[in-house]
Fold these 2 entries.
Entry 1:
Amino acid sequence: MTAPKTIYDKIWDAHVAHEAEDGTCLLYIDRHLVHEVTSPQAFEGLRMAGRTVRAPEKTIAVPDHNVPTTAGRENPEAMTEDSRIQVAALDSNAKEFGIHYYPVTDIRQGIVHIVGPEQGWTLPGMTVVCGDSHTATHGAFGALAHGIGTSEVEHVLATQTLVQKKSKNMKVEITGKLKPGVTAKDITLAVIGETGTGGGTGYVIEYCGEAIRDLSMEGRMTVCNMAIEGGARAGLIAPDETTFEYVKGRPHAPKGAEWEAALAYWKTLFTDEGAHFDKVVTLKGEEIEPVVTWGTSPEDVLPISGVVPAPEDFTGGKIEAARRSIEYMGLKPGQKLSEIEIDTVFIGSCTNGRIEDLRAAAEILKGKKIKDGLRAMVVPGSGLVRAQAEEEGLADIFKEAGFEWRLAGCSMCLAMNPDQLGEEERCASTSNRNFEGRQGFKGRTHLVSPAMAAAAAITGHLTDVREMM
Amino acid sequence: MEKFKTVTGVAAPMPLVNIDTDMIIPKRFLKSIKRTGFGVSLFDEMRYNRDGTEIEDFVLNKPAYRNAEILIAGDNFGCGSSREHAPWAIADFGIKSIVSTSFADIFYNNCFKNGILPIILPQEQVDVLMKDAEKGENARQTVDLEAQTITTSDGEVFSFEVDPFRKHCLLEGLDDIGLSLEKVDSIEAFETKANAERPWV
């Protein structure tokens, strides 16, 4: 009998194309997603070495980081010259190397991690990589998915493999049921608050437990998306009926007899009884509250009922880091988190730019107006999410409340396009990183769920969404 | 890639924990389609005022550390995005080795692809190296990859671990795409088998 395996072990074993004596492996890559920022140097490297893309049919490109999210963006004048050059480079590289491509004029264009699952490129049991740390998102399907650097992008383009050593196994279990007003975003932030941003370093996380099982595919994507913020190489969730239901019928999902064969295989992708985990973290679902971040690291998480901590509450190097964060964020120790006033709200990103995220925010905003003087924007994760939200009447709710209703892209999550915070502007954001300068030079970010972002938009300060439900 | 043997040079102390890739190279510098020229923008928002003048008390702006070749850093260095622009900027500035108690995974990988040696040591040893680095430009440290040691200016020696394959690639300055393509038969065999077993992929 073979030793019990985790789902990570199983996917890993199924993708080793070559193993050297020292355990260094060539791991075969089933899907390679590409965007405009981390790929131009890789394609240039291929050209210089006279190499080709080994599996163009497994390579999918979409511009997302740089693209403006305002009307008229297909006009080259809408972008700064350097952005235009990057998008144009992706355009010509996609054509030259014959890879799948969704240009900004295509309704399927959007954030690469939203487009992949939406189009059925991402399937259970696959290995998925992208020159982007939030590739972890695709782990929601029971795929092994992680970010890579540009040299590795070039390596995958040329060889369809990655040089890898296996990570350790970590289990994050969320038991029980979530309370009303608590979402997948609160789970994933609460986990990082517990483990720290380095807690997952060297591990692949499997998220499990009743609260994870109860999540929709979209919620699971939100959870896995931020595995990287906990330092993990990847985060994944064993596929189940929820997964199969989501995948079925998508443009690139298998059909007919192939669907049946795939389904039979996918049902073997679970962690065997007694499989070994090197680290285990357990949180009780019913104890998780809606959370916000107060600092400049995603581990700086507290329930909305909390107060800004003091540097002395920490130990070691975190004391100085917390002092720096509190100063950068313009806060005072002891200040109630629910009294922090904001001037901007951003709803979108690969973390929370899917249709359910927009529904959750619209539910709170229905019939209400945002606080006077506040700047609020919704940036759907893809053109298809946007179209669906318009069809469901969500766009009207946002617009009537005073939100800007934008086109798809990464937008203010990392502010590489014109959507940026000004100096000392403070934003309640559904994105994934609150680093210094992330959303604009000296901008201040508080990470929250879509429902919490909507609540903050109405009151003008960080707000416990449960008071509005 | 340039070969990495030994480095003897000034070590700059950056004790702050969780230095992320957005700090190392802010996004406005990610719009280049080249791999070079990022050194001047390394740590941009910590290093320069908005008008482009230098912030005097930032470590790499101090006369003692302007030519640093080694960085002694706080925990979890390089967390955040996968941008290889971070190690490109570090290498372009002239830093060849970084020491910390821990590195973020993707950043750690990216270093080796760019001739930078990231060294993981226990807190007590990082503390000693940090104190040594704080002495300034006379405190030159030596990293010896072959011997897997780092030596303080006082001659105290610490050993470090490094993956043998990665060590080999750094020492020889090898391009790993070329190495992997030597195994193309294995890749082809895998594809044939995988296509039969999982034709829907």
Entry 2:
Amino acid sequence: MSIDFLYPEFEVVRNMDRCITCRVCERQCANEVHAYNERLDKMVSDESKCVNCQRCVSLCPTRALKIVKSDCKLRENANWQNDGIREIYKQANSGGVLLSSMGNPKELPVYWDRMLINASQVTNPSIDPLREPMETRVFLGKKNVKPERDESGNLICKVPPQLELDLPVMFSAMSYGSISYNAHASLARAATEMGTYYNTGEGGLHEDFYQYGPNTIVQVASGRFGVHEEYLAAGAAIEIKIGQGAKPGIGGHLPGSKIVGDVSRTRMIPEGSDAISPAPHHDIYSIEDLRQLVYSLKEATEYKKPVIVKVAAVHNIAAIASGIARSGADIIAIDGIRGGTGAAPTRIRDNVGIPIELALAAVDQRLRDERIRNNVSLVVGGSIRSAADIVKAIALGADACYIATGALLALGCHLCRTCQTGKCNWGIATQRPELVKRLNPDIGSRRLINLLTAWKHEIKEMMGGMGINSIEALRGNRLMLRGVGLTEKELEILGISHAGE
Amino acid sequence: MSKGVHFVTGKLWRDECLCFFYFQNGKGESKMKKEGQVRIPSGCAIAAVISTEGKKISGGLVAEAMRPMHDRSNGLGGGFAGYGIYPDYKEFYALHMFFDERATRKDCEAFLKERFEVVHAEVIPTRKIPAITDEPIIWRYFVAPLQSKVAAMQVEEEEYVVRAVTRINTEMNGAYVFSSGKNMGTFKAVGFPEDVGIFYRLEEYEGYSWTAHGRYPTNTPGWWGGAHPFTLLDFSIVHNGEISSYDANRRYIEMFGYKCNLQTDTEVITYILDYLIRVQHLTLEEAASVIAAPFWSTIDRKTDLNDKEKHIYLRTLYPSLLITGPFSIVMGFNGGLMALNDRLKLRSMVVGEKDDKVFIASEEAAIRTMEPDAENIWAPSGGEPVVVRLKEGVQI
């Protein structure tokens, strides 16, 4: 055994009384943990390869399997914890940057859980969403036009281009390449059915999905993969991706092994070549350059489509958002530090950026202070986990939320956080055909629709409890929130009172 | 001019003496926050009457109308707005003001004189009654903006007045402008509305239109500014309800220079209507369609495509000015009234007519008090504005 050896993180516990040697686990595990030993006539495991994705556990017909965290650990040390030591061994061995997937797993404060929602009692009535209309429709886009009238005094009903959402939730950017064809198909169909939008991410739009264009946001990122005129024209809106919550300040890297077949064609790059997006857009070195790109895209689409600028939540986010609000962008999307990713350097994912709750509160207030909140709509993501998070985000001032990790969970993701290996057993973050086909888009889209439908019900219930029958009247309605266990400073930034006040 | 408005002499002593009580009561004794530092929900009673022919109606009539609705108030606020009550000064903005002490009044008068020509200033006559206590110093000023100042600021005259009023109410501790329109005035106090009517000698005023309010706050307001109506220029609002959209509305409207100092629904509704009508130049009906917007399901079903387009437009442009939660409001303005319910009609409001008069009230009993033979009594639907204007050609 080498100096680097560490006992595997997970143990595969197989109940031999239950195991019928059907070998389902073996066939299901792309990591090759399970194998059949003919001599012994039983299943054996190599737990060193296990990522705890729970695929074998879920599919074992006799419930013979469970995956548990290994209790074979180094001596306990509050400062030098197990993960930290493991990472040092890895880096001492490889000399490389550590890679991780999905959102920040560290114990950062989750402010959603420190805010509580109001309800009506006596002085005004709560409203029953089963008996009364309860509106969740939202328009995203600029609202800063002054009404004009024709000669006969009628209003000229022209507004800048808007995105119309039946509920204030959209699927956030995940590129074709980082996730599978079937995952994209599921997202596109669900968005269409639910009257909302999904986002292509930076990998272009597969030709099969142009039919979902009215419910598609097409992304333009620093690598400009798959960007061409028809692509821009296909979507309902265009998103300029400046940054991502999981990796602010750096670009993306999709390994050549994933650039195969349709992915290569959709991205318009050769098969097998690494798809590397630069850290900045090389035509945006300053805010005035952003304005030029915004207007280039508007020119290319005849001012018919709203332009979204997506940025990661970083320290100076309020000032950055203020700059974007004056750049001509119609919508600002902000992604918080807990946002997911298909692959990001671990140190960046875990240490760069700020929580979305604080970023949202600061941006919304700053735009109001500068009287330009009307110039843009605000969309926030970076770990929106439930209908309650959405209600709190809207009350803080968001127009809508982006969800991605939540959507992937609905598709079967078990959050094993190893997307970067491309061996997703659930058929989501992989391009291997035999894995991709495990995700059935009929079932996937149905599960996404179920999730959004359930959330919509919950949002309505909470709104009704507050006596609010339109989501518009919840937006920025911070009196509907109270903090618990927060400091004066945190309350000040969130712009809310403490519970009991 | 009605006889109550004559200059009242020998009242100056009240300044010093009563301000003492007010001061002690309002600020000195407890840690309880006064209105403006805390948001206080209220239930209420409202009533209004207008003569479409511009005939004179005594303020006493509408004060009496509040009596049968006594239980809708709890003695912590009552008030009235009368239109056409200052015909002799109809060209001038009538500023009604509360002061906590004489020095504040002097400071404020200096502030006013830098910005306005003050053509007349006087104590607002009141009647000492046991039911109304702790009154502040109450004055009125008839003023005209100094045109050179208006020109220098490069704003319209009305905006100039709004800014001056906002500045006093925001920055001048102890001074509060509670009425600022032309040929109209607001009278309000902490007390039951019928008592407030007696206190302000309302029967001595005559106007073509009146609105009235009785308040049921769930907290002690602490001072008189929180009573209703709430006014800005000639807009006055009386409101019954507790809106659930308050902070969404407040944070939006404050982007346009308004300051919600009182944290009351009525205040924010006044600013919203001022913004939509005076600044954005929407019609009353369009403004009503913004704040009590039809449901999307209703809009989607509309067959009149122009009407449908208009509603989609208004809801797209002003989503943050939608008001949810229960309300019934009557907005007074020079030349008319508008009554409006929230779109679910979560608060009662009825309308009745008789000859040239239209009556609006929370309860029919109030209408019957004003006019026992009122006809066509009906309850407007949620979100359906009732706009009553003076008949064409009627001069006030």
